[in-house]
Design brief:
With 496 residues, the chain is of the alpha+beta class. It has helices at residues 34-41, 93-104, 133-137, 183-201, 222-230, 234-243, 251-263, 266-272, 278-289, 294-298, 303-328, 363-371, 391-403, 450-454, 481-489; strands at residues 16-17, 23-24, 56-57, 64-69, 81-89, 111-113, 122-129, 144-152, 163-171, 205-207, 340-343, 356-357, 375-381, 424-427, 429-431, 433-439, 469-475. The chain has four domains: 16-61 and 164-208 and 431-495, no CATH class; 71-160, 2-Layer Sandwich (Alpha-Beta Plaits), CATH 3.30.70.3160; 222-301, Orthogonal Bundle (Hypothetical Protein Yqey, Chain: A, domain1), CATH 1.10.1510; 304-427, TruD, catalytic domain (Pseudouridine synthase, 2-Layer Sandwich), CATH 3.30.2350.20. The chain is 33% helix and 18% strand.
């Protein structure tokens, strides 16, 4: 059985510690600082012992590139839909799609994509647009390129792509004591961690955490909103979305969120809302027109974002189940008795419709197929009918659901039925492909982030004189590049 290295921090924090020293997750953190957020999100432990390279991501927008690997829908000149490949610079996907819909004169619901991409990044993905080709060709949106591929009768749905190719530059690599690392030492550590993960999990496999952007690394509001949604409390959902503070707010955002918490005055808050808080402004406009109609206000959010709040709540349970498994010393690659395993498809996704319970009869066969990359051990994304493992793995999953206070939720959203969920399962570890690492050039222009220009804070783990590395790899759909980078970097969550 492979063992997983899990450091247990003894710094002061709002956690409880059991007699055997296990740090217990709590669902009611005050979230004062990086450590609290990590515990709340269940992001604790690593697949290999080591100090990592530290560093900071997204210093420049061009430092984080994502290119969707996908097949073009079958093209037909008489097709209803326009197929386009879109490259975005520093665009949040939902905001761009709303802007595109407005430019085409259609509803946002008539634009189809297979995934949401990082905002501070250069991203390329496929879109299917229910609009005439000429309208799409006429669109001119800053910081975007739209390449028309043709017409099609086919839509695309979430995770319909084959994977994502990442090119990521980490800057300011440094040791745990803040000493800058040179490129040679930084690359040595990356390769050492890669080899260490391979020895424990299989070649180029790593724990399949759900990354901080699912929740919000500096403002993990989405699972809190999701909890309010599944409990049918849309006033609280709106209050949280508008008013919950983050750890790195600009002054105008801080003033806006404080005003909402203090006054609950939609018009006054709308008057001072920063321009980039478009979703918040949409919610407030509904409340101006329909006072105290919080259900309608919440539904001003794009359907994909509404659904994301519920998915992020499920994701809390998954991360805590994965963390619990690490603390217990259970393998992620090979199954235990009572685990649920699922076949791995060519794309790297698992087929949850063909899951099997691991028993004494099939244990060795399942272990062999997991080692060969044919099966994956899965963890829970809870819902109305989602199965749980049994035996020791089942106890860990049940504990994770209890710790995140999801054991009494029925996952039925009466007022917005399409947000109800049956739940599913997710692989505990996944494989990256086409990996490379090299030294990257230093910043030679003024395009670096304000954070980089200001220099590191005491709690940061990066140094302006440290090495810059460029990593390339491909991941299956639904897998987070920041999670893999976390394995290599070991930086606080707000560094990603």
């Amino acid at each position: 059985m492979s063992r997983i290295f899990v450091p247990i921090s003894r710094r002061s924090s709002p956690t409880s510690v059991s007699e055997d020293g296990e740090v217990l997750a709590q669902a009611t953190f005050e979230l004062d600082g990086n450590e609290d957020i990590e515990k709340y999100l269940g992001l604790s432990g690593w697949a290999h012992e080591g100090h990592g390279i530290g560093g900071l991501l997204k210093v420049r927008i061009e430092d984080f590139r994502v290119e969707e690997e996908s097949s073009t829908p079958a093209l037909d000149k008489k097709g209803r839909f326009t197929v386009a490949r879109v490259t975005l610079r520093n665009w949040e996907t939902n905001r761009f799609l709303r802007r595109l819909a407005g430019a085409c004169g259609i509803s946002r619901k008539r634009i189809f994509s297979s995934g949401l991409k990082d905002k501070r990044a250069v991203t390329t993905q496929m879109l299917v647009i229910d609009a005439p080709r000429k309208k799409v060709e006429a669109v001119d949106i800053p910081d975007s390129e739209i390449e028309i591929l043709g017409r099609s009768h086919q839509k695309i749905g979430m995770s319909d792509h084959d994977g994502n190719r990442f090119t990521i530059t980490v800057r300011g690599c440094c040791d745990v004591d803040g000493t800058p690392l040179d490129a040679k030492e930084a690359m040595r550590r990356v390769l050492e961690i890669r080899e260490g993960m391979a020895s424990r999990l299989g070649d180029d496999a790593f724990p399949n955490w759900i990354g901080p952007q699912r929740f919000g690394a500096t403002r993990p509001v989405t699972p809190k909103v999701g909890r309010a949604v599944v409990e049918g409390d849309f006033e609280r959902a709106v209050d949280l979305y508008l008013g919950m503070p983050g750890s790195r707010m600009t002054e105008d955002v801080r003033d806006f969120r404080s005003m909402w918490l203090e006054t609950k005055n939609p018009q006054a808050c709308l008057d001072i809302a920063p321009e980039h808080l478009g979703f918040e402004k949409s919610i407030l406009q509904v409340l101006v027109d329909s006072p105290e109609n919080y259900l309608k206000a919440f539904r001003a959010l794009p359907p994909s974002l509404q659904l994301l709040t519920v998915h992020s709540l499920q994701s809390l349970a998954f991360n805590h189940a994965l963390a619990g498994r690490l603390y217990a010393g259970l393998d992620l690659l090979e199954p235990e008795l009572g685990d649920l395993v699922a076949p791995i498809q060519n794309s790297g996704r698992v087929d949850v419709s063909k899951m099997a319970l691991v028993t004494e009869t099939n244990l060795e066969r399942c272990k062999r197929n997991c080692r060969l990359g044919r099966l994956a051990v899965t963890g829970p994304l809870p819902g109305r009918d989602a199965p749980l493992a049994i035996g020791e793995p089942g106890k860990i999953e049940g504990t994770a659901i209890e710790k995140t206070e999801l054991d009494d939720i029925d996952w039925q959203v009466q007022k917005i039925p399409n947000l109800s969920t049956n739940g599913t399962r997710r692989p505990l570890c996944v494989v990256f492909r086409d990996f490379s690492v090299e030294e990257a050039s230093i910043i030679s222009d003024d395009s670096s982030s304000e954070r980089w220009e200001q220099g590191p804070n005491e709690s940061d783990r990066w140094h302006p004189d440290g090495a810059n590395l460029r990593l390339r790899f491909t991941l299956p759909p639904g897998t987070y590049a920041t999670v893999l980078m976390r394995e290599f970097m070991r930086s606080p969550l707000d560094h990603y």
